[in-house]
Amino acid sequence: MAEAGDGGWPEPVVRVQALSESGAATIPDRYVRPETERPSSAATASEANGGVINIPVVDLSSSPGTAATAVAEACREWGFFQAVNHGVPPALLRRARGVWRGFFHQPMEVKQRYANSPATYEGYGSRLGVDKGALLDWGDYYFLHVRPPHLLSPDKWPHLPPDLRETTMKYSEEVKSLCERLMTAMAVGLGVEEERLQEAFGGSEGAGVCVRVNYYPRCPQPDLTLGLSSHSDPGGMTVLLVDDRVKGLQVRHAGAWVTVDPVPDAFIINVGDQIQVVTNALYRSVEHRVVVNAADERLSIAAFYNPRSDLPVAPLPELVSPERPPLYSPMTFDDYRLYIRRNGPRGKSQVDRLAVAATKPTNHQ
């Protein structure tokens, strides 16, 4: 079974794909979730009022005012929506999925050249948290920095398949442009100046972009594990391109898990913790997770749009009032994500912890 050198991890890293391809009928104990966290343990919302429950769908080709209203409503009520008619060519979406599926189908020795470490996560990985002996998720991934330019490391970008680099860069630039449009729509929906959210992130040149490609191999016991534990995204906004053949994303809504039914060629957009902070929780990040299955592998591409990492992020003054005081103290994204790197996905505990700290009375002895 393929293992990576520790590379700063607390113990040798076992590739989930290698476990899947070993033919074992059971999964190691490290991947077995407590009963309360297993896919079948919580209520799952599937139908209501005779129809299937799904996250909202927003047509970005509608008039700017109509689109902004729909985006704002989805961000307030769900924290998630599917964006259709978003302007990114469907052919590019297919190419992006194809090159990354091709990478994960390369021989293990090829992939191991890009093994990552907790220092940046950039490269080929199989775990997030650095706690020794922690429970693990049933998934491998590849993480890349795209912007700002000084963080882009060409040696971390795979050479195989041959068109992976060019396709991923083109895809990332298209998604960055989409994020800038969505930041404008979100701001308009809040009733603030249309550039205010972008300014809070350091402007279009200051904002960060990174990509995480998730690969969830077939699992012999999918009811016992998760592909990705329940979490809210620590960054600003996530643009997710899901597998075009296999479902797996679940979003927590009204106390139940909703399995997302993807619209073809749509992006799934979700609010991250940083937008929750900037909007003083008018827009809220939402817990989500990934389930796996025994019959099929699954691949998704998540692009994260984040504030400039050294810029203190705090609620916009326009969204603060005596009736709605600031819920969060200023904190840089660099400081914020250190918590995630130490602990891995932990529901919404990280952003909730910030709110508690900001509202706790100060003792001036």
Automatic annotation (TrEMBL):
> What highest taxon heads this organism's lineage?
Eukaryota
Give the range the annotation lists for the signal sequence: none
Which InterPro entries does this one have? DIOX_N (IPR026992), IPNS-like_FE2OG_OXY (IPR044861), IPNS-like_sf (IPR027443), Oxoglu/Fe-dep_dioxygenase_dom (IPR005123), Plant_2OG-oxidoreductases (IPR050295)
Record protein name field = Fe2OG dioxygenase domain-containing protein
Give the coiled coil ranges. none
Required co-factors? Fe(2+); L-ascorbate
Q: What does the UniProt keyword field contain?
A: Iron, Jasmonic acid signaling pathway, Metal-binding, Oxidoreductase, Plant defense
Question: What is the reaction catalyzed?
Answer: jasmonate + 2-oxoglutarate + O2 = (1R,2R)-12-hydroxyjasmonate + succinate + CO2
What organism is the protein native to? Oryza punctata (Red rice)
Listed GO MF terms: jasmonic acid hydrolase; metal ion binding; oxidoreductase activity
Q: Which residues form the Fe2OG dioxygenase domain?
A: 203-307
Q: Which family does it belong to?
A: Belongs to the iron/ascorbate-dependent oxidoreductase family.
Does this UniProt record's set of keywords contain Cytoplasm? no
